[in-house]
Every structure is written in C-alpha cells, then in structure tokens.
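MODEL INPUT / OUTPUT PAIR
PAIR INDEX: 1
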Amino acid sequence: MMARWMSVGAVLVMTGLWCAGTESLSRAQVPGEGGGEAITPYDYERPPEGQMVPDTSVPPNTEALSEEELKRAEALLPLLEGKQEYWAIGEFVHLGLPVVPVLVKALTMPGPRIRYNAIETLSILKAASAVPALLNTAKQPNEMPRIREHALRVSVRLDPSQTVEAIAVMAKDMNSSVRKSAAFEARYVREKDVVDVLIELLVDDERFVSISALQSLWILTRHETEMHDWDSSTKQQREEWAQEWRDWWKQEKDSFSLPVPRSPRTSSTRHDKAWDRSLAERKIAVLYQQQYGLS
C-alpha cells in the first residue's frame, strides 16, 4: 500500500513540474511578459518570415541561334541519354523552335534513348516542321519498334495529314506491334485513304491488330455492320467480314464524308442518365463480353 501511494505521489510531482515548465515556457514566448524577449523552445531564434515571390518563367527563345549556341546545342545531344537527360530536354526546350534542325540530327544518332528523347523533345516543342523527319524514322524497318511507334504518335499529333503514307507502310510491317500502332493511330487521321489501310488490317493474324483496326474504322466512319465475334474468329471468317467492309467502301468512298469527331464529354454529360456510349465502345464491349463471358 505504501509503495502504491509513493508511486501516485511521484506522478503528481512530475505532473506539477511539467505544468510549471509549460507555463513558464509559454510566458517566455510572449513578448513583454516577465521582461524576457520572444524566443522559441530551446532558445532557438525564429526563422525569418518568407517573402512572397511571384511565379516567373523564362519564355522559349524565338530568335535564330548564333554559331556559339548551335555548337552548344550539338554538345547537348549526347546528354539526352543518361542521368542528365531531363535537364538536357529542358535546355533544348528553352532554345525553342530554332533548335529543331539539331534535334533532327539526333534521330539518326547511336543510342536508342537519345533518339527517343529527341522525339519527345520535338513533341514538347510542337515542332510541326520536324514531321517529315519523324515519319522517316517511323518507316525505318531496322529501327526499334518502340521508337517507330513514338515517332508516328508524335507525327499524328503534330500534323496528321502527312502521316497516311507512313501508316500504310507500318501496316505491312513484319512486327505485329508496329502494325497495331498503325491501326490505332489511324483513328486520328481524317483522311479517306486510311480507311483502305484499315480494311486490309481486319484480316491480320494478330487479333489485337484486327480489333484495333476495326475500332478505328468504327470511330472514323461510324458505319454500322453486323456483329461478329472477332476474338474467336478464324482467318477465313475475317476475310469474309473484311469483304463486307470492302463492298461497302467501294460503293460509298466517292461520296462519303468522314463524320465530325465527337466532342469531349463534360462532367454534366458524363453523369447524364440519357448519355449513351459511342458505337465503337459498345461494339468492343460486346466483343469482350462474348469472349470472356462478362456481364
């Protein structure tokens, strides 16, 4: 019993000391009380208050590069690969559109990372003048598929009207990943010639190439066809279904006008009960439901 009361007393004493210390510390922090100056715990001085600094950015250069700046830009090209690659990209972006000819040189340099980052930098700069060089990279059969696909993707975003030939070349490539990229990016190219390319891709041996081409056709033309199970189809069945598209396109090509692209959905239309998914999305959903038994 005695030991218990001693423990309780010790707790009360410690509590009292803590409260007294807290009170004295709070008084020490208040200027003018007790004759002391305002201090922080442990007698550390308060850091100076930060000053509001307005956000500023340096606009990209628009003037022609000097000879010295051109040499500096060319010296930056190897740095597009390595630990400083993001810093190098930032430097090229700061130099602006006048540096595009230097970046085009990087598309043929050894080192796939250099070539890939050069394409990425051209995309950031929105350098439409580099599209012919990018398409030439996309058509190179000996280039890495990932780089070819990136070159085509950036070209389509910058100037889709120039990409029809490259899409046709990539659609016949031996690599299925390259063919799939051509089938996918074609949906953003509002040119009638890509429809012929997509129809021929419907009979591709790779099912995802075929499905990508089919979805691009629906998005571009909004032509409603009979439902077919493309996932479990045979080569002969796909030939027959592709012929349906050929017959339809042969009749409609001369007078057909590509429909206006759908506008992006806003938050109000997204939650609208009357909202209906696009034809392409609904058809793709049905295909996957048939294949995997999803409800």
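PAIR INDEX: 2
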Amino acid sequence: MPDHLSYEREFDEIRPQQYGWNNSVRRSPCMNLFPISLITLIFLPLTSSIALAQATVEKPSAPLKAIAVVHPTEGSKVSGTVTFTEVADGVQVHAELTGLTPGKHGFHVHEFGDCSAADASSAGAHFNPTNQPHAAPDATARHVGDMGNIEADTSGAAKLDYLDHHMSLANDDRSILGRSVVVHAKADDLKSQPAGDSGARVACGVIGRAKSQ
C-alpha cells in the first residue's frame, strides 16, 4: 500500500509533468513580490531626497540688500532713506531725501556706523579700505565710499539711482555693512583731498542689513 511519502512524491514529480507545471508556478505570489517591495521601500525615500535636494539647489536666493535711514544732524532738517541692493555687476544705490537746500550735496559712505555725535563727526572719514584718493564715483581709483553728489530740487527733495562697481554687501574688505551714509551741506568738487570740500554734515544714517524680498 502506498504510504504517505509516496503520495507526496507523486504530487511533486508526476503531477507537474502531467499538467505542464513547473516549480515556479507553485511558488507563492508573496515570494515573487517580496524582492520588488523591498527594493521599492529602499529606493523610494532615496529618490524623494534627491528630488528635494535638487529643488533646494535650484531655488534662486534673494539678493543681498542693505538700508540706511538718514536722520538730521543738529540744526538740520534732512532725512530720508538710502538702499543698497546687490546685482550681478555691483551694488544698486537708490536714495530719497528731503529737507535739503536746492542744489548739489556731497554724499558718501563713511567708515564708522556711528551717528551719535550732534554733528555726525563720530562717523569718521570716508570709507577707504583700499587707500585710494578721493574722486568721482565713476573714477577707477577712488574711495569705496565716494558716491559723488545728490541734487535737490527747489522743494529740497532729492533722488539718486546709480550702479556702483566698488562697494560690496558681502563679507569682504569693501563691504559697506555697518558703515554710515553722510550727506553734506555743500557740493563735492570730486577732486579736493581728502573729502571733496563738501562742508558740514547735515544728515547721517547707519547702514544695516535689510530684509530681502
């Protein structure tokens, strides 16, 4: 009489041949899916991380921006704002002032971010880290702080917008961050040393980091 082992042998050896089975047909579907599931679990977080990293790298950063809020010195009425924005080939300077006498006024970045003195003498001299002579803003050799003149209309309002190729908002020796903007009573003649003979200081504002948009 066939024993239990004989029936198992018949099932394992004879039936597959009779019905055209092979060993892979009798494997559990779960066994076939297991390696695929494992690979998916390993690589899905990895691909997600790569995609996130690429999105982070490709996102453009906001340009560096600084601002000086200008306040009058003793006996003056001059006030306003000066903004500095990093662009591809320099720093874009935009100034809007009121309370000036009509005409041109010397307009510079000074070495110290200190406007505490009544006459703004605490701001020090022109910012000149490269030890160059005083000159016009478009000169090759000039103080980093030489911004020339800002011109007021008959109402005392003045605007200035120009691109400066000498100053910086980065962490280097030409950075104007932490310095000050000083406005003078007279026009800068752009040649007299050391400061253009532009007279008393009528306004001062410390340059600080601004919120980038």
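PAIR 2 NOTE: The CA atoms of residues 112 and 123 lie 5 Å apart.
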